[in-house]
Amino acid sequence: AQKITQTQPGMFVQEKEAVTLDCTYDTSDQSYGLFWYKQPSSGEMIFLIYQGSYDEQNATEGRYSLNFQKARKSANLVISASQLGDSAMYFCAMREDMNYGGSQGNLIFGKGTKLSVKP
Amino acid sequence: DSGVTQTPKHLITATGQRVTLRCSPRSGDLSVYWYQQSLDQGLQFLIQYYNGEERAKGNILERFSAQQFPDLHSELNLSSLELGDSALYFCASSVHLVADTQYFGPGTRLTVL
Predict the structure, then answer these.
(1) Is the pLDDT of residue A100 over 60?
(2) Beta strands A32-39 and B64-68, pairing class
(3) Which of A9, A10, A42, B67 lies 20 to 30 Å (CA to CA) from residue B79?
(4) Alpha-carbon distance values, B27 to B2, B31, B91 (Å)
(5) Could you tell me which chain A residue has the CA closest to the CA of B106?
């Protein structure tokens, strides 16, 4: 079974509107972290936002917020007031902290969502 | 700019050859991770080093190896290259061993002809 599922291969949003990118995860660890990264067409991976499994408040970073629903194992990224520069691939990732199976903090990535912002 | 540097940016080589990718982590970061991004496999974890020691292995082929030097920079060695090794190779770094945000370098795009 996939550990990180991003069900939207591609999405369109109008400039200045908000958009939600979906991410569900699967883990039996109690302690884990959830991340979103942005990959523009130039290829680099840009860290956007982090949510720890024990954090009670949803994380926010500027126009980015993470809608964390632990019981549903979802960690959706919300981008408010979309800009043309937001057009990119967005990856959801998870880090399992309990060292099961030899994990030492590496990230497990979803397949990504390609976001296109229309002017 | 994440503060993680990778060289070279692009690398074109032939099947059967060997290449070395280099990574310098952010100042103060002790942990270095290598990831491979390919069209068919997506982003996959290869290997992690922490303060010079190997700490975790992912889906890394036996033809691939890595090391982290005393100055904390890391090198990923890929040998007996095959067409399927063509990919974007990322290095990421973090301060601690676990429970930390990883910052990625710009990547090295490897093309095997």
Answers:
(1) no
(2) unpaired
(3) A42
(4) 11, 11, 14
(5) A44
